Amino acid sequence: MKHLWPKSLVGQLLLVVALMLLLAQGINSFLLYRGAQNQNLVEASTSAVSRIAFGLDRQANDRSALRHGTARARRMGQLRYSSDSTVTADMPRLPELETRAGQAFANMGIGFSEIRVTSLRNLTPEMTGHVIGANRGQWRDNPINRSMGVRTSPDETTGFVIISVKQMGGPWVSIASAVRGRTPVLVRTLLLQTITIYLLMLIPLIIFGRYISRPLKSLTAKAQFFQPGETEMLEEQGPPDTRELIRAFNDMSGRVSSMINEKDVMLGAIGHDLRTPLAALRVRVENVEDDDDRERMIAGIEDIDHMLDDILSLARLGRSREQTDIVDIRSLIETVVDEFTDLGHDVRYQRGAKQIANIRETLVRRALRNLIGNATLYGEVADISVEKSGDMLMINVDDDGPGIPDEKIETMFEPFLRGESSRNRATGGSGLGLTLARAIAREHGGDIILKNRENGGLRATLSLPVG
Predict the structure, then answer these.
(1) Secondary structure of the chain: what % helix, strand, coil (to 5)?
(2) What is the pTM of this model?
(3) I need a surface site. Which of 19, 85, 149, 333 has the fewest CB within 10 A?
């Protein structure tokens, strides 16, 4: 049932309306069917009442009917005369039809001491030959009647109504009347009615739903691929509420772009203002006579410069002007590995099959440098492997270091949080490497995953979409 439920708002609205219409039409069909059944019973009982009244009237006007008995009475209306009622105690009674029959007889000036009415699917043996309406099809199939336009397909007999009345001081008089069903006509009528209702209700809803959903889809796409600094505004369309929502989104995107532009200007000023005195300080430090003091000062200045570079890169991420290119990931990894091996680090990579991805090469190279740098920092060896999982390329960087407690893995992506608590860059770095690497991966539609290895060490996986 969950898979059949639409995901879109318009689809859910149409499905709910369709189900409610179906439920309402089902209830309406049931009520109409019950009403048709009751109407058929009333018509059959009316015919039976008329035949009893007609037969008793003929009997009163023809005294010979009393002498000839049942045979003559049968010819005068197929009435059955008996000492006991044909409607026995085990048959279902129809009080409403009994009341109707009593009122009809009273209006005609005929009185009975008791009236019994029942409805049966099959006729009882004693009522055979005392039925009216059972041979209607033969009458309609008569050539003369057909030539006069009478229907040749009579309604199906669905049962019989039996009326048995007790004469004052006389015998029971009974007659059966065939109940004719109109189910095919009713089904066609209900089917036509249902189709009409669905056409009148669902087609306008579909059109109105598209009128609503089209601007919402455009708004969703605009929000998903929102890039700060875009000047193109989304066109306001749809009903008033949707137009107001689009207008609010355009205003919000404008404010966000303005804030980011102000932030970039501020960061650019900070970067320029800080790097200038750092460069002057570096020149002055070169004049320090003590070699140890000079090297420590230079290392401190380089730490500040690297940290400043990481902060500016992280802040500007998402507004990079670098275009994406089709890059061979295998060659990119080899380039980064060569950089580390040239510095004396033990970084291993077994060249595999060619893997192509559409990426910003400079940013991905930086993310790989950060991951490999952490592996060489906390372990002696960094092993790199590449595997493909579906439409994602997984670049695994394994080290043989101490690993990270499972409960602290996610917190390692927080800015300025490091696995080593000291501020020494040789043991802890700036604390922005993993943060920047994950931001780069997520900008490409991937992610960074950290996981402790079973044999010790840590695995950092950079996932990138390919294809």
Answers:
(1) 55, 15, 30
(2) 0.47
(3) 149
CA dihedral defined by 109, 115, 120, 122, rounded to 10 degrees?
-80
Is 79 buried (19+), middle (13-18) or exposed (0-12) by CB count in 10 A? Answer: buried
Please tell me whether residue 181 adopts helix, strand or coil conformation: strand
DSSP 126-141: GGTT-EESTTHHHHHT
State pLDDT tens for residues 244-291. 988 998 888 888 888 877 777 777 777 777 777 888 888 888 888 888
Q: Are residues 151 and 140 in contact, defined by beta-carbon separation less than 8 angstroms?
A: yes
Round to whole Å and give the CA distance between 119 and 43.
13
Rg of the chain in Å (alpha carbons): 47
- The distance of Cα 394 from the centroid of its chain, to the nearest Å, equals 32
Which strands form 346-349's sheet, in the order they lie side by side? 346-349, 381-389, 392-399, 458-465, 447-452
| CA separation for the pair 398, 19 (Å, rounded) | 56
Strands 131-132 and 172-181: parallel
Q: Which residue has the tokens 């019989």?
A: 160
Which residues sit opposite 165 in a β-bridge? 115, 173
Residue 123's identity, in one-letter code, is: L
CB contact burial 441-459 (16+ within 10 A = b; e otherwise): bebbebebebeeeeeebbb
Where do runs of H (alpha helix) occur along 225-328? 240-285, 291-316
Q: Which amino acid is at 333?
A: I
| DSSP letters for 423-446 | --TTTT--S-HHHHHHHHHHHTT-
Q: Would you place residue 229 in the very low, low, confident or very high pLDDT band (cuts 50, 70, 90)?
A: low
pLDDT at 184 over 70: no
Q: Which of 81, 49, 93, 57 is nearest to 173 (CA)?
A: 81
11 to each of 14, 84, 152, 224, 253, how far by Cα in Å?
5, 66, 48, 21, 29
For β-strands 458-465 and 392-399, DSSP reports them as antiparallel
17-27 b/e (C-beta count within 10 Å ≥ 16 → b): eeeeeeeebee
Beta strands in 41-148 (DSSP E): 80-82, 112-120, 131-132
Q: Residue 172 is which amino acid? A: W
Please give the backbone phi and psi of residue 247, each rounded to the nearest 5 degrees, phi first.
Answer: -65, -40
In sequence order, what are the residues at sequence separation of 6 or more whose Cβ sits closer than 8 angstroms to the Cβ of residue 443? 317, 318, 360, 363
Q: Per-residue pLDDT tens for 303-326?
A: 777 777 766 776 666 555 567 888
